[in-house]
Amino acid sequence: MLEIENLHVQYGNIEALHGISLHVKPGEMVTLLGANGAGKSTTLMSIMRLPPPEAPRVTQGRIMYKGIDLLPVPPHLVVAQHKIGLVPEGRRVFGNLTVLENLKLATYARKDTAQIHRDYERVFSLFPRLSDRKNQRVDTLSGGEQQMLATGRAFMCGADFILLDEPSMGLSPLLMQELFKVLMDLNQAGMTIFVVEQNAHIALKYAHRAYLMEAGQIVMEGKASELATNPEIQKAYLG
Ligand SMILES: Nc1ncnc2c1ncn2[C@@H]1O[C@H](COP(=O)(O)OP(=O)(O)OP(=O)(O)O)[C@@H](O)[C@H]1O
Ligand SMILES: [Mg+2]
Global pTM? Predict the structure, then answer.
């Protein structure tokens, strides 16, 4: 579904990704692990083709999505046409709007009205907390509820592939489990998921496969269950 090959990326003159390769197959939940500054968000921003000034610049390599080269694709079409949903770092929901209004914004490019209504139902059944707070202003939601909203919003763009940037950040252990269980449910219902995490414990528990990134390079990859029992990973990331 997603195939990244030998990707080199720069901010200004400084290279942040030094030729990474990774792939995600349809129906998989794959995690990209790494410490602060490893290049995880940069990888996601490269896939989403985010515009300057934040944009990392691809200098070499390929990003293919369902057989199509994403590099020439403008950012709005990555979402609207290629149906890739992003749950960004720090959520970036609209605090002065309600839950429902935030979800509605994600559907702006869709015309499949009947399916949109089914998708609202789906989000509210996955996240009953959001259902209870449909008309509440988002800046009054808890951090966990905002994370759920950000995840629901990615779903509402009609995505069949969702990228998440450190969804566990700032959540209690209980909410983290709750969120990853929902991700697993979504995944089992056919959603392909690529989740960036620093929390190796939770990500390796739920993902099928994992990549480990250090200083802009992939240094290890394999089945999540294998990485979870790898002594190096245990020492550095699982405490
Ligand atoms: N806009 C930018 N301009 C210049 N350098 C940047 C920019 N954004 C990120 N970098 C650098 O690129 C490298 C990778 O950063 P990135 O944000 O991808 O890391 P990360 O793995 O997501 O880290 P974290 O877990 O802290 O979010 C870092 O060295 C960072 O300082
Ligand atoms: Mg990051």
Answer: 0.94
